[in-house]
Predict the structure.
Amino acid sequence: MNLHEQLGALEMGVDQLIQAVVAPQAENIPETSAETAAPQAPVDHVTTLESVADGAAPEAPAAKTSVPAEQPAAHIQPTLEINRPAQNEITMTIGGQTVALRAEQIGQLIEELSNARASMTPEPPPGIPPGWRFVSTKNPVMAVQKQSNGDRLLVMRHTGHGWVPFTFSPDMVIQLYMLLTKG
């Protein structure tokens, strides 16, 4: 199966999952706060804000994650299952269809999901949720470009997310500088 077939199968599975699970539930489920929301799926080499604050070591990596869909009485919903059979491979199974993704394909998937998420509501929470899990990139590669309106485009390379762009107004550049140079 080539990359386009794999992505097509994955997109079809994700679309089915969204249609079967998320869309009907979105109308009936009130928004949840960060404390009551379901926990994020485990990821290798992650750190939580709580463990950073406490000086604790990061949690051990998980080999397999399964996110079951809720099942109405009359209809069985597909499930999403994620496995990491090798260091440089992840497999995703949706409704019995398994797709193996390598690093480049995972990067493409992250980019597509990120672009889609940016246009969705609700937006991510304005504050950092307690227990949020993340992978930090120390001293990332960066590029800066001045925009015609005076804004600055800052692009940073995160080891998990890839190139992540941010645009700052001149006032925000000053605030960022002050924040980074606080004693």
Residues 21-64 have pLDDT under 50 and may be disordered. The chain has two domains: 3-134, 142-180. The first helix runs from residue 3 to 28.
